[in-house]
């Protein structure tokens, strides 16, 4: 029963995040060969994960990390280049991150897995 309700919550959260994502005017058209702005590695991660900005521009970003249930786990501000995030307070499971510009505009989202 817990797995079913967790899945339902995840689906609802994904559904709610898509309208906000589609309203963003700064997102490029999605194509097969489109390059990502941020790279998260290693995936799966055990003790730390790195977020690396792939495009060399002068923008400053922030990353917000949510657990599978939608609870905010981390908010990393002033992200430029490569940032290491320790996973000491994370449990094993799937996490979703959102890359946002300093003004709050959603640029990209992704996921990573923590295995302990």
UniProtKB/TrEMBL annotation:
Lineage: Bacteria, Pseudomonadati, Bacteroidota, Chitinophagia, Chitinophagales
Keyword Signal set for record: yes
InterPro entries: Secre_tail (IPR026444)
Signal peptide span: 1-22
Keywords associated with the record: Signal
Domain of life: Bacteria
Limits of the Secretion system C-terminal sorting domain: 41-107
Database matches in Pfam families: Por_Secre_tail (PF18962)
Protein name (Swiss-Prot/TrEMBL): T9SS C-terminal target domain-containing protein
């Amino acid at each position: 029963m817990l797995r079913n309700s967790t899945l339902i919550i995840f689906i609802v959260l994904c559904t709610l995040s898509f309208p906000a994502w589609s309203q963003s005017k700064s997102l490029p058209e999605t194509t097969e060969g489109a390059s990502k702005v941020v790279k998260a590695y290693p995936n799966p991660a055990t003790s730390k994960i790195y977020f690396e900005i792939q495009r060399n521009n002068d923008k400053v970003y922030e990353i917000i990390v949510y657990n599978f249930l939608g609870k905010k786990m981390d908010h990393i501000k002033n992200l430029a280049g490569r940032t290491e995030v320790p996973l000491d307070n994370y449990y094993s499971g799937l996490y979703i991150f959102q890359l946002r510009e300093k003004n709050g505009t959603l640029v990209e989202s992704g996921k990573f897995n923590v295995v302990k």
